[in-house]
Amino acid sequence: QKEVEQNSGPLSVPEGAIASLNCTYSDRGSQSFFWYRQYSGKSPELIMSIYSNGDKEDGRFTAQLNKASQYVSLLIRDSQPSDSATYLCAVDSGWGGGNKLTFGTGTQLKVEL
Amino acid sequence: SAVISQKPSRDICQRGTSLTIQCQVDSQVTMMFWYRQQPGQSLTLIATANQGSEATYESGFVIDKFPISRPNLTFSTLTVSNMSPEDSSIYLCSVEFLAGENEQYFGPGTRLTVT
Fold it and tell me: B105, A98: Cβ pair inside 8 Å?
């Protein structure tokens, strides 16, 4: 059973702080890793994808991948109240798994004024 | 950017009936998927919609309960058959635009309530 694990939260951070969201996965063959943001009552929105070890930055977001540790994280700098949402980690199904993604249960982020 | 639409956006249905959900994309896509998201939970893949052939279902989901069509590269339907209250959920289609990158983009979802 391929698993993607996230802390459910809520993770509370003050406005302007760095929010750090973490995800671990079980399938060593996974090659593609994604972070989605989901506002309450809305569908998931892709915000970051990462395929290689190291960091990938896009605006206030940085995704970090460590395949040896089977760990992927998302940093949100200068957190804003509008960042308050549930963040879903998704991982591909690895070798022979085709294009399927497995989603974690999500971490709820609350950015407080 | 491409637009992914779903119809209906929500519906309330009686037990034992069926509902067909449509997913339409305004450009051609390589892959289409159907997910279910039950209240307070994450996404569960129902099936991969294959163009011109039978869908590929995940464990726990069967064609008789969730028949899927994908007649072309921009359109797919999911039918929820013989509904029970346990089928109350949000149903989402997702698409991939580029082969090999696995980036999936979601439609707005269909909120289904079965009474």
Answer: no
Residue B1 has pLDDT above 80, yes or no: no
Please list every residue in chain B whose beta carbon sits closer than 8 Å to the beta carbon of residue A43. Answer: 92, 106-109
CA distances A82 to A15, A44, A86, A109, B78, Å, are 10, 15, 12, 10, 33
Query: What SS3 class is residue B87?
Result: helix
* Pairwise CA distance, residues A90 & B38, whole Å: 17
* For residue A95, pLDDT beyond 80: no
A98 falls in which pLDDT band (50, 70, 90)? low
Distance (Å) of CA B70 to CA A74, B4, B32, B63, B73: 35, 15, 8, 14, 7
User: Which residue type is seen at A62?
Assistant: T
Strand-pairing partners, residue B69, are B77
Q: Looking at residue A10, what DSSP letter applies?
A: -
The pLDDT tens digits of the residues spanning B37-86 come to: 998 888 999 999 988 889 999 999 999 999 999 999 999 999 999 999 99
Write the CA distances from A94 to A26, B19, B74, integer angstroms: 10, 33, 26
Between chain A and chain B, the number of residue pairs with CB atoms below 8 A apart is: 46
